[in-house]
Amino acid sequence: MMGRVYGSSTPPPTGYRRAEANRSGALRRCRCRLLASPAMALSNTERQQLLAEPQVATISVAEPGRGPLAVPICYHYEPGGEPWVLTGAGSRKAARIAEAGRFTLLVHRLQPTVRYVSVEGPVSATRPATDDDLRTIAARYLSGEALERYVGFAASDLGAQVVITMRPEHWLSTDMGAW
User: Fold this and answer.
1) Residues 148-159, buried b or exposed e (16+ Cβ, 10 A)?
2) Where are the chain's structural domains?
């Protein structure tokens, strides 16, 4: 993350440092925010636990002729398994994933420490969604009356859905510590 560069006439706030000059004396841009603790990659267990938390992910998939399609999505994951998403059968996401044959999920959280995990891989299965799939994924995020209202709405208003499952191939993860 590029922060503001502080020169010799402007004192940096606590936790920041001054920009350094290159050989010509011009200030060079730098990563100015100092972390409370060094960033560290998560262990296999930690990254799987983070992905298993009920977070909203960003799904990203290649889109010809432009940057990747990247949008928020609810997902399901249990450590050691394969993550899956539920989306409209005729949606842009479903079409792009079918075309690319792979996708990425990115999850991050801010408390108690700043962490993220990104998992990418090929599609291992695509199938029509069932009412049980809808309830399983919705129950990660909702409970009680809110869950029942959403399941009723989704079943009647969202149309045909598909479950798309990924075989995790590449993981990136970091714990950046507390800020």
Assistant:
1) eebbeebeeeee
2) 1-34, 44-175
Instruction: Say which residue the tokens 């799939």 belong to.
Output: 133
Q: What is the pTM of this model?
A: 0.77
**Are the C-beta atoms of 3 and 33 separated by less than 8 Å?**
yes
Tell me, what amino acid is at 112? P
pLDDT of residue 136: 96
| Contact between 97 and 84 (Cβ < 8 Å) | no
Relative orientation angle of helices 144-157 and 131-139, to the nearest 10 degrees? 140
Query: Is CATH 2.30.110.10 correct for 44-175?
Result: yes
Q: Where are the beta strands (DSSP E) in 74-114?
A: 75-76, 84-88, 102-109
Q: Which residue carries 């560290």 as its tokens?
A: 40
